[in-house]
Amino acid sequence: MRILPLGDAALTIEWGEAIDPAIHARVLAAYEALRDAPPAGVIDLVPTYRSLTVHFDPLTTDRAALFERLQALAGIAPKSALAGRHIEIAVRFGGAEGPDLEAVASQVGRSPDEIVDTLCALTLRVYMIGFLPGFPYLGDLPEWLRLARRATPRTRVAAGSVAIAGQQAAIYPWPSPGGWHLLGRTDSLLFDANDPARPALLAPGDTVRFVRV
Amino acid sequence: MFETLAVPFPATIQDLGRVGYRHFGVPVSGALDRVSLKLANALVGNRPDAAALEMRFVGPKLRALTTVRVALAYAEATIERNDGSRVRLPPWQTATLAAGECLDIHRVHGGVGYLAVTGGFATPLVLGSRSTDLRAGWGCALREGTTLPVGDGECAGPERRLSPPDFPAGPIRVIPGPQAERFTAAAWETFLSDAYTVTEQADRMGLRLAGPPLTHQGGADIVSEGVAPGSIQVPADGQPIVLLADAQTVGGYAKIATVISADLPRLGRMLPGASLRFTVVDLVAAQAALVEEQAWFTRALASIRPATEEDAAIDQAALYEANLIDGVVYGE
């Protein structure tokens, strides 16, 4: 574990440089410890695949005390199992709503059905939320299903699109430009700003299963 | 309340930002120049975090639908009174408009200007903030015909004025990292000795800079991690991108350094074509710069006084001077 400076108003604690459930388990443990007893002055905690960024108010934060608190996280036990919520997400695969399913199938040499069955059999870990409000980075896909992003990103991907790239799957909560392969679409509401206690459907540490409809 | 008559350039409602939701991917947003937003609010008697209108280049033309008291930071306007007269409203001074009177904000100085109104703009609150997030569709991006609601406030008493502060000059101050070691010694020397220019790709998400390329060691791409306003990302082409208020919460490019909090308002005020240099400071200096910012902010607040006839005369002189300068800069 190392603590890196992110300017004068944030620090990033880094546990590794890979997308790896074992690293993420440490991130989650530290995130929950700080979230449940936030140090004075801290305004935001951002857990990612491999690191935790701590944003604080530089004028009111005792930086030395914060640094000491973060250093103590080195010894924290990784979260042994994902204790978040388990969410099932109904997805319509293929067709106009999943325009890349056929191309992905031919690229990996399997049938579209096999792709969908594989995806729906996985319990996916929510590694982090980013890119857009409520946009979940889910993993991990099996080796044979890992594809580079599209050479030319789409200028507009519809909200609710379920997509894959590399070892990740994701769902677009908002219409957006995007370079991932679109396999289907869901009607699940990924982000609800009217629910300030829990605006995003998914949070880091949750698990997701796609259900074909 | 205002009715929007014309919007020559994008203008958005901003406050001090949407904090506490970054773990859900929600950018912090808020004013690019928080100091000017707070000062404009102080002039019209608002809390520092009241919502104001952020403008670039040329502001909108608005018609008051109720009695409103306004002040401009880094912008000037013409008031069209109901009696047919036209009055200039300089920056850093309040004016009260009766229903039916118009405010034509014909010029914004530097990168951003603010229009504050007594009571604040009462546009919808989303996750604790009125700041506009264009990608999520939150807040308010002004359009022709937009009605701007205003909160309750007291518009009585003399008009007020303040002496504007000067932002610190000199290079933009940065703290190295988090990926300082991903750049060669030559890249660091370049970064700290050469000038960079703000390109046309400059918006509320960030400023793309152009200058001598910065060479990575070990590649430009990292596994995505947290970023902050002020993060200086360097993609594979070696041209730095400084992130601003609307930046995403995470990013996958190596970051050579982070701009200190006290210099973020200066960055937010930069226009395409502006030239900037970087210098490294430590945390002690970063903290001192924030304390200094507070000191000149407090001095500016203490300078708030009733606007006098003498101020009006000075404004008239300033107006002639500005016209002369504009004649030189924009003349054919």
At a glance:
The complex is a heterodimer of chains A (213) and B (332). With 213 residues, chain A is an alpha+beta fold.
Structural features, described:
The complex is a heterodimer of chains A (213) and B (332). Chain A is of the alpha+beta class and 213 residues long. Chain A has 2 domains: 2-75, Gyrase A, domain 2 (2-Layer Sandwich), CATH 3.30.1360; 86-212, Beta Barrel (Cyclophilin). Chain A contains 4 helices and 13 strands. Chain A has a 7-stranded mixed β-barrel. Chain A has a 4-stranded antiparallel sheet with strand order 1-2-4-3, covered by helices on one side. In chain A, a hairpin with a 6-residue loop joins β6 (124-129) and β7 (136-139). The longest helix of chain A has 16 residues, at 21-36. The radius of gyration of chain A is 19 Å and the shape is elongated. The model of chain A has no long low-confidence stretch (mean pLDDT 95). The relative contact order of chain B is 0.16. In chain B, strands 21-14-15-18-17-20-13-22 form an 8-stranded mixed sheet. In chain B, strands 7-6-9-4-1-11 form a 6-stranded antiparallel sheet, with no helix packed on it. Residues 323-332 of chain B have low confidence and may be disordered. Chain B is elongated and about 70 Å long. The two termini of chain B are 40 Å apart. Chain B has 2 domains: 2-161 and 304-330, no CATH class; 172-289, Beta Barrel (Cyclophilin). In chain B, 20% of the residues lie in helices and 30% in strands. Chain B has 332 residues and is of the alpha+beta class. The chains are: A alpha+beta (213), B alpha+beta (332). The interface between A and B is large, with 46 and 46 residues.
Rounded radius of gyration of chain B (Å): 21 Å
Strand ordering within the main sheet of chain A: 5-12-9-10-7-6-13
Overall mean pLDDT of chain A:
95
- Total individual domains of chain B: 2
CATH architecture of the largest domain in chain A: Beta Barrel
Distance between the termini of chain A: 43 Å
Name the overall outline of chain A: elongated
Write the element-wise H/E pattern of chain B from the N-terminal end onward: EEHEEEEEEEEEEEHEEEEEEEHEEHEH
Which band does the percent of strand residues of chain B land in? Answer: 25-35%
Class computed from helices, strands and strand pairing of chain B: alpha+beta
